[in-house]
Amino acid sequence: MQTKRTIFGNKGLPYLLLAPQLIITGIFFLWPAAQAVRQSFLREDAFGLNFTFVGLRNYERLLDSPEYLNAIKVTVIFSISTVILALGVSLVLALAVDRMIRSGRAYTTLLVWPYAVAPAVAGILWWFIFNPTIGIMPYILENWFGYDWNHLLTPSDAMILVVVAAAWKQISYNFLFFVAGLQSIPNSLREAAAIDGAGPFKRFWTITLPLLSPTTFFLLVVNIVYTLFETFAVIDATTEGGPAQATNILVYKVFRDGFVGLNFGSSAAQSVILMGLVIVLTVIQFRFVERRVTY
User: Closest Cα to residue 278, out of 240, 232, 224, 242?
Assistant: First the structure.
C-alpha cells in the first residue's frame, strides 16, 4: 500500500500547526507532572509557603505505611474486578446487538445513555439503589435471599458496590467499540464455519474472539487506566473510601492526603508512584499482551 507524504512549502508551518496541541500538553500534562515530581521530594506547610527538601523520605514512609500497602491491595482487587465485569458485560451486550436485525439501533441507543452520566452522578445513583435504609437492592436481597446488605459496615459489600458502579459507567464505552469490532468481521467467515458444522460456541472462540482481539486489547488498556485514575468520583459519592479503608483506592488516597490532610509531599509522592505504575502496566501490556493480538 502506498502512503502519500505531505510536503509543506514553509518549513515552519508544521510546527505552527502542532503548536496548540504541544502547548496544551505542556501546560495541562507535563507541567503538573513535573510539579508533582518536585513536590514529592519536599515537606511543605499547610499553606505551601515554606518547604524543606527531604529527598526520598516521603517515598520511604509510604512504603513502610500499612495504610498505603492496604490501598495498593484494594486498588488491585478493585481494578481487576471492574475491568473483568465491564469488559464481560459489554461483550455480551454487543454480541446480543450483533444478532439483532430490526431493533439493533434502538437497543444500541439505550445502552449508550449511561456513558453521558457523570461519574459522580453514577455513584449517587448506585448509592441510592444500594442504600441499606431506602434502597431497592437491600430490600430484594433481604426478602428474597435472606442477605442483610449493609455497605456502610461490611467491607465486601462496599467493594461490590463500587465495582458495580464503576463498571456500569464504563460498559457503554466498551459496548460501542465491541459493536464496531463485531460489525467489521465478515459474515462469510462465520457462515463458512457454520456450514462446516461449527456451533455458535466454537465460532465465537475460533473466529469472533480472535478477530476482536485488537479491540479487546485497546479496551483493556483504556479500562485499566480508567480504574486507576477516573473512578475517584464514584468512590467519593458511594463509600468515601470506607468502611475501614476497604474501598480506599490509590487515587482516592492521593486526594484524602493532599486536600483533606494537607500532606502535600506524601500526596505528590503517591501521585508519582501511581503514574509510574500506570506507565509500567501499559508497557507490559504492549510488550507481552499485544503478542497475542491478531491484526
Answer: 224
